[in-house]
Amino acid sequence: MDAIDIVKVNYIKELLTKKTREDGREMLAMRPISVVHGPIEHAEGSAQADIGATRVLAGVKLMVEEPMKDTPLQGSLSVSAELLPLASADYETGPPSPESIEFARVVDRGIRAGECINLPELFIEEGKVWCVYVDLYVLNYDGNLFDAGSLAAMSALYKTRMPKYEDGKVIRAETAKQLKIDNVITSTTFAKIGNSILIDPTKNEQDATDARLTIATDDENIRAMQKGLSGSFSVKEVSELVEESFKKHKELKGYTTVD
Description:
By secondary structure, this protein is an alpha+beta fold. The chain is built from 5 helices and 12 strands. It has helices at about 5-15, 100-115, 145-160, 205, 235-255; strands spanning about 35, 45-50, 55-65, 75-85, 125, 130-140, 160-165, 170-180, 185-195, 195-200, 210-215, 220-230. The strands form 3 sheets. Strands 1, 2, 3, 4, 5 and 6 form a 6-stranded mixed beta sheet that branches. α2 (about 100-115) packs across α3 (about 145-160) and α3 (about 145-160) packs parallel to α5.
């Protein structure tokens, strides 16, 4: 961390001692959110999710492939992420970074644990299944990738069209049906800085964070949780944040399922 970053971190911490955030939000208030459905013309499904200045693009592609050996009667889901250099000075070209791998896994885990896609229904015939690939691209980074990525991925899947499959060929120019979505999950990320806990941290706030907790929920259940960094949350704090996640889910779900 260079001198400028240290100054920013100290500034964030000083503000929080006064129960104030750099952008004036309350501790449990998220930044403005917007979702654009279908920005990628040739993808089976796509969406762009903005949370504040953080912008994530998701594209969905369906391929007919051999099933996994341990699940021969069902399709598969795969989420990958790319942190584009244009999104932040901290990102570089090259092999996947630990940050991009964690980002993809957190988004994947919420969707998978939420049973959002009925994978057995993607079975076509012996030796052939539909495989759902979700690619995440960070177009601009200002903190809280997990929530923006989950929102983009879930929104893209919700609008995904399945290509026609006939005589052993995928006909992408024709749509057979919508991809069936059985459940919708969203995630909310909390940062603990000193004794303060806040939602949807900006980049500066994330740089000052001691502990991070991302909670993926649907209407009734906790579907996944991801703890990050060396700090800790008390049992009471986790319980309170779970309740807050359920409250935020009602709002975030509306962006995913909008017609």
